[in-house]
Structure formats: C-alpha cells, structure tokens
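Translate structure to sequence.
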C-alpha cells in the first residue's frame, strides 16, 4: 500500500472487504483524517471503519442520506476537505452545524469534520487500491516474480547484498543495528529498513538468494533461477551502475581468463575487483594471463 503509516492502520482496523481498503487508503492520504481523529474514534469503539469519515465523497453522501439538501451537503464537504473548517475560515460553519444537528448528525461526526485539514477523493483511493490489489495478487501467487520486480525497481537504491543475501540472521542483525540507533540512524539505513523487512519476509516464506555470479548475474535486474533469486552486480554496495553494466557486458562476450582481463575488458579499477573478490565472484581466476615458469 506504499506508506509506513498503513502498517498500524491495518492492525487497528483489520479490513475484510475491498471497500474497507479504499477507506484506509483515503484515511492514510488525508491530513488529520486518521491520526488524532478517526483512529481515536475507532479505538474507543465510537465508530467502525465503515462509519468513519475516510474520503471527501463520504461527507456529501452521508449528509444527503441524513436529509440535507444536495447543494448544502456539497458545500459542507468542500469546506471540510479543503481545511477551511479546521482553519476557522468557513464563515457559514455555525449555520452548517445547525443544519447537521437538525438532521440528527451525531456530535462525533461534526467534531471529526472540524479537525480535517485535507481529504483524498474516493476515485483516487480506488485507483491506488486497485493497483495495490493487483500487485498483492503477484505477491501471494507469484512470489518470486514479485520479489524480483520489487528489488529491481522499487528497492534498487537501497538493496545491500552484503547484509541481505546471506540468510535471515544477517538481515535480523542489520535490522536490530538500525533499530538501536533510533532517530540517529543514517538516512541510508532508514531507507534500507523497509527493504530489510521485505527480504526477511521472503526468507520466512522459504525463498532464498543465489550467490552473485560473474556470468549469471545481470547488472541491475534480480532474476529467477532454479526456484531462487539471483542478485545483480549493482546490489553490491559500492558497485555503481556504470561499472556494473560494463562488467556485465564484458562477461557476456566471453569468459575471463584472469583478473587482469576483467580490469581491461570491463574497464574497472582495483576497488571494483576488491568488491568482486569479497563476494567470491573471482574465485578460481588467476591474477594474470602470464604463465610463471617458477610458480
């Protein structure tokens, strides 16, 4: 669903229908719609998720059902969703409140309207959730394809093979390390944390990574191979996209005879060679094509 805020919302609301997912999307994209507002009402049992104000359209439809004229219902919706009511800039709010009370609109509903600073349109929420639902289908039914796509596209800048492809214990240790740093954790580590969560989830579902391979790894795409995932060169921390692509293209032309040949054909320096060594990509290769008579 794309937002960290949603983790807590899903736990609090336990959605069971597509309509509830749309409502959650509306709540999460608004300002003061969920936090300090609907969240409290749901937690204390005042309302259910279906009754809470989640999207702009909810206000107009609800007020029309309660008996307000469509034109008045629309104007109230517009004032609330733009934050005019919350900001004290709606000159007719007392009049609108009177109309709502005359039509038996509950006090909690009016109070909720007075806190909202911005609201998401329901059509946008429906579009977001439709897309999320399609992605979720792949996550459940085609998990390897999902993880490959996510790591290649969404997590390419935050995937660190050094702590992610060697089993879940390394992943857990890195997560704990970032957690212990709290708000002082580096921005890079904070951005990496959600990717670590997904990698851990992948391990918990029984899937594994293959080693990075000099000839089998792509330069930027994660690939499915023998029921596992082969990471690309650019998942190695310190391996930039230019070096990764150059290395990949050189490896596809023909096999390397030595480490010196990697330097020459892939046009990479010693720092890249050191990274390849760390990941075992050069195991078995001699340093040079030269034959030593006394070796």
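Result:
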């Amino acid at each position: 669903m794309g937002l960290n805020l949603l983790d807590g919302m899903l736990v609090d609301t336990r959605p069971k229908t597509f309509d509830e997912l749309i409502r959650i999307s509306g709540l999460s994209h608004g300002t003061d719609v969920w936090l300090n507002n609907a969240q409290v009402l749901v937690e204390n049992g005042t309302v259910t998720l279906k009754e809470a104000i989640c999207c702009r359209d909810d206000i107009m439809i609800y007020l029309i059902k309660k008996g307000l004229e469509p034109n008045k219902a629309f104007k109230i919706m517009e004032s609330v969703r733009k934050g005019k009511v919350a900001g004290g800039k709606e000159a007719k709010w007392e009049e609108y409140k009177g109309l709502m009370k005359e039509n038996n609109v509950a006090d909690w509903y009016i109070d909720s309207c007075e806190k909202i600073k911005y609201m998401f349109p329901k059509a946008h929420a429906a579009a977001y959730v439709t897309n999320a639902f399609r992605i979720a289908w792949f996550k459940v039914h085609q998990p390897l394809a999902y993880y490959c796509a996510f790591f290649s596209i969404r997590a390419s800048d935050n995937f660190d093979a050094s702590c992610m492809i060697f089993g879940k214990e390394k992943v857990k240790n890195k997560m704990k390390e970032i957690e212990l740093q709290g708000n002082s954790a580096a921005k890079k580590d904070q951005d990496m944390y959600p990717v670590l969560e997904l990698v851990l989830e992948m391990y918990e579902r029984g899937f594994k990574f293959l080693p990075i391979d000099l000839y089998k790894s792509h330069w930027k795409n994660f690939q499915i191979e023998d029921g596992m995932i082969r990471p690309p060169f650019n998942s190695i921390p310190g391996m930039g996209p230019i070096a990764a692509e150059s290395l990949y293209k050189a490896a596809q032309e023909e096999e390397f005879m030595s480490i010196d040949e990697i330097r020459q054909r892939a046009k990479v320096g010693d720092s890249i060679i050191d990274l390849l060594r760390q990941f075992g990509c050069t195991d078995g290769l001699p340093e040079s094509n030269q034959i030593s008579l006394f070796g």
